[in-house]
Write a structure and sequence with these properties.
The protein has helices at residues 2-5, 9-23, 29-44, 48-63, 79-93, 96-109, 115-131, 135-147, 156-168, 171-181. It contains ten helices and no strands. By secondary structure, it is mainly α. It folds into two domains: 1-104; 111-183. Helix 7 packs parallel to helix 9. 42% of the residues are buried.
């Protein structure tokens, strides 16, 4: 996920595909995560067909996980994590209705102290609003989410998602999000 989260989706897609092959055909947390990261990476590369196939793979695997495979640990793949990954994949594919559903499912499974997860989901929602034509709401939502984070959280992945949205905006919405990014 590191290459994906820091702007190298091609490298991420290659690593995730390799991980998916090594994970084999059994439903494991590793296989589900590899499929989900493949979906996000391919979506970031505008390979909608490949991303859709990887989403189906991730869903199929996740539906068959149980016990320790679903633990909320570094080696587990809980449903909350699954929906967060699907949110990003669908958002990048431009499938807002599926993204909104994944965001809703992820939020329902995310405990309130999970500040970063909630902020990332909100950035996905804002990106969907922009894609759906509600540019003002997208900018306001992203700016509010970003400005509401502690300073130490306003770096890395959340900043890169906010900046990606900012680059797609113009006029007052761009200025509004730009002011939040400057804080």
């Amino acid at each position: 996920m590191v290459p994906l989260n820091y702007g190298a989706p091609g490298a991420s897609a290659a690593l995730a595909a390799r991980a998916r092959r090594k994970a084999g055909s059994a439903p494991t947390a590793a296989a589900a995560l590899a499929a989900a990261v493949t979906a996000r990476a391919l979506a970031a590369l505008s390979d909608t067909a490949g991303a859709s196939a990887a989403v189906r793979d991730a869903r199929t695997i996740a539906d068959h996980l149980d016990g320790p495979e679903t633990a909320d640990t570094w080696v587990g793949y809980p449903m909350q994590k699954h929906h967060v990954h699907l949110s990003q994949a669908y958002t990048l594919m431009g499938d807002s209705s599926s993204a909104y559903a994944a965001q809703s499912d992820a939020r329902a499974l995310t405990s309130s102290p999970s500040v970063m997860t909630r902020a990332l989901l909100t950035m996905d929602t804002a990106a969907c609003l922009k894609a759906d034509g509600d540019v003002g709401a997208a900018a306001s939502m992203a700016a509010e989410a970003f400005a509401g984070l502690p300073a130490s959280y306003r770096t890395g992945l959340i900043r890169s998602r906010a900046k990606a949205l900012h680059r797609q905006l113009s006029g007052k919405p761009r200025d509004e999000l730009g002011q939040a990014l400057a804080t």
